[in-house]
Amino acid sequence: MGAAERLADYFNFSDHDTDYRTETLAGVTTFLAMAYIIVVNPAILSDAIVIEGYDQTEVFQMLAVVTILSSIVATAVMAFYAKRPFGLAPGMGLNAFFTYTVVIVLGVPWELALAAVFVEGIIFMALTAVGARKYIIELFPEPVKFAVGAGIGIFLLFLGLQELDLVVPYVDADGLPSGTLIELGNAIQSPVAALSVIGLGLTFFLYARGIKGSIIIGIVTTAIAGWAITLLGIVQPDVLTPEGAYDDITNDGIVSMLTSVQYDFTPLFWGFVDGLSMIPEEPLVFVLVVFTFFFVDFFDTAGTLIGVSQFGGFLDEDGNLPEIEKPLMADAVGTTFGSMIGTSTVTTYIESSTGIEEGGRTGFTALVVGAFFLLALFTVPLMTAIPQYATYLALVVVGIIMLQGVADIDWNDPVWLISSGLTITIMPLTASIANGIAAGIISYPLIKTAVGDARDVSLGQWTLAIAFIAYFAVYFAIEAGTITF
């Protein structure tokens, strides 16, 4: 048996009726859909992390490097240990919470915040090893499990439409916000919206024709078109190209860009070490920060795994993911490693659904994602040349496809109707997977009781509902300033 056959056997290609071409295409698609994190994560974290002796451009590049490294490690664990087609990277939302709530608003030193993420990761590893995370996730009510996929779909769709300028904040004639929160973007006034409509039309056309790689073709074609329109002088630089990328490439040249990266991230590591030494000085602050990181990340990751797995057909008849502890361990390892080198919580990405839509079914898809992150490590500046709106085409397409999940919901049962409906709608409306799950979990025992089926609600499900209520009480108290540090 040759090396290719052994590798295919290791990843169980035959069991999943897949091949190298399909898995590779899926991995590339997932990477392109989540590659924006290489730029966005440093942009967010650099608002909080200031290192003496380094300018913010150097800090930004350090953070880009550690974003990539943490993604490689976590995705490698996913590929070889969990053997699932999921990509991992520092999580959006969690990085914003790290920066703007914990460090900037609450005044927690970034070094101590990294230490909190590290402890969170260690706790996750321990809970995963003993099966506690799996047990808690399997307590999720069935209506919630089967609604998560559609909820994530609408979340992706809404997020993508915003980034494509096709859904915009509503303002009146004086430019002030009005009663209607959003409206349709103007494709005549916005070059991004106009090109996005064309890109979406092409992608949907190819998808409907059953052409493999339709999503990646749409992304690449739209990105090339944006650069071509800019280079022809039809639109100004930084409109259809990432900010500063046009000047960097035309003035400095590609070779200069590739050799100007700050790869030495040891200042971030030593900042993490300093954070560990701060724990005895601020024990209450530290515990509260760890609790918040833990709670949000736990349910955000759980929701993503269930939703994406439902989309890929990986769930069993009870809505559970077999051997879920393995992908959970991947994000725990990624979080622990990432915090040590300087980034916020690492988690499974909902963009993994783009690769699953292209046919990815095994860990080889994740291996390809990791390989492209490794390649990106040597081309950090060039990654900034990919327009973010082009990658968000994938979210719109996959978001619509994921709506198929509503067919698994019994809409005639009031328990399913309310719990599933809240799970699906709260996710996009609050931009949080965890909030959607919370709404479903809290409502489930209440509605079960209302219809006379309280005996069907387990003690664990009541405990989960109460835990969510307690979490929100603490979170809102911090937001309102009732709890201060």
Automatic annotation (TrEMBL):
It is a multi-pass membrane protein. Its main location: membrane. One of its GO terms (molecular function) is purine nucleobase transmembrane transporter activity. It is found in: Endomembrane system. InterPro entries: Azg-like, NCS2. One of its GO terms (cellular component) is endomembrane system. Pfam families: Xan_ur_permease. The chain crosses the membrane at residues 20-39, 59-81, 88-106, 112-132, 144-161, 188-208, 215-234, 254-273, 285-308, 328-350, 362-383, 389-409, 421-447, 459-478. The keyword Transport applies. Keywords: Membrane, Transmembrane, Transmembrane helix, Transport. The keyword Mitochondrion does not apply. Belongs to the nucleobase:cation symporter-2 (NCS2) (TC 2.A.40) family. Azg-like subfamily. This is Uracil permease.
